[in-house]
Amino acid sequence: MMHHEELGHLIARYAIEDGIHATAVPRLSAVRISKPTDPVHSVHKAAICIAAQGRKQVILGQEVFEYGPGRHMLVSVDLPVIGQVIGATETEPYLAVRLDLDLDLCADLLMRVSPPSGETGRGLVISDTPRELVEAAIRLMRLQETPEDIDELAPLIEREMMYRLLKGEQGAFIRRMLEPENRNRNIGRAISWIKENYNRSFKVEDVASLSGMSPSSLHQHFREATAMSPLQYQKQLRLQEARRLIFSHSFDAASAGHSVGYDSPSQFSREYKRLFGAPPQRDIDRLRSEPQRYAEA
Questions:
Q1: Selection from 26, 68, 64 nearest residue 47 by Cα
Q2: What is the pLDDT of residues 46-66, one digit of tens each?
Q3: Which of 36, 230, 232, 294 is most buried (CB neighbours < 10 A)?
Q4: Does the pLDDT of residue 154 top 80, yes or no?
Q5: Among residues 146, 162, 178, which one ends one of the domains?
Q6: Residues 70, 168 share a domain
Q7: What region holds the HTH araC/xylS-type domain (predicted)?
């Protein structure tokens, strides 16, 4: 049996219904989707996603990234993306594992491991998945069979996975995201500030100062990492949070827009329609009528 097939069997055993299922292992989730989905807007956390079956595409700005068995996605900073499962059936669903990154662990390993050199500005990359990385993911999933072993063995296996990443073709990518004076860390500080203050107006100059960068440097490198400007990033966060408030908490459109920082209801409706393809109420009605088509994966 191929290693990705073995991983797929384990995922299917613990994810018997469609959706993202938290496992007993900290920060490890199993994903199962049994038919293609519509595009789903979300903020993707720093994580590694390893596909065992089916195919998924992720859109960041205007770029499209696609992965399936034998490929994995690594995200280094929180990114507003559009995800869509494009290859899945009832008999062969999309199956994947997702491990949210422990950046402290990565930083500790970085002090001991010398990654290969390389260059990429994006906060998202797709790479071939080495056999050793899949084997480690299999062992991490199998710990659910012996939950008494999780506390002791899960950290060791996760450390091995991060080691494999650092020694592989994404090693330089991880190094850049963790080096204290690296611009990616500065961009990370800017992203964290915007996430915490998404409903407030701000000047790029102020965020640049908080991040230890000049405004022009912040703008350039922020766009390289996220494929959008700081203000566009804020807008994505605002609109996604407003959508959540309307869908999950029954806010009306005007109240949701005001809660996330919009002073003009008409501007909010225009920008909401531009991002999600329909005005707020029609979009929410569509989500509620077919929730499985918009399941995050």
A1: 26
A2: 899 999 999 999 999 889 999
A3: 230
A4: yes
A5: 178
A6: yes
A7: 188-286
